[in-house]
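I am going through a labmate's work and have reached the protein record below. What it holds is a sequence and that sequence's fold in token form. Please read both lines and tell me whether the tokens look consistent with the sequence. Do not assume that whoever made the record got everything right. Thanks in advance; the entry in question is below.
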Amino acid sequence: MKALIAFTARSLQTDMPRPFGASIVHTRTGKTLLHALNNVMGEFDPSSHAEVRAIRRATKRLKNVSLAGYTLYTTCEPCPMCMCAALWAHTDRVVYGATIEDANRHFDQIQIPATEVEARSDIRCTVDGPLLRDECYALFTHPNMLRALRRWYSRKRK
């Protein structure tokens, strides 16, 4: 999780800061397969969440629709869409940092906990978190991120 936080934090120094990052990690060995960032604004795609992007890239890299044997780490609790993607990919485990409630202070959210999505599924996946919540939430409150949010919301309302 610390490596993911550091990876995500680098985006805060760019013109397009993003607090949402995800990693796919081999469950048994702990070896990171890849990292991804949210890119909703860059791709003009509301489904371009970090978790979905990481899952898409990982399954392509592995040439397999299953991520059994892998864990999804994410800087924020997965929204229902992302949690469903993790379930459909059969990830072993999802580990998150900040909570949906934390993200909702800055972004619109669908406030259904990842544990509830998993509990209502026929597919099993361990959900752990919050882990390093304060460090992950700091990604949302970084001055560059807050400036970007003000710009984004001022354009969104027009």
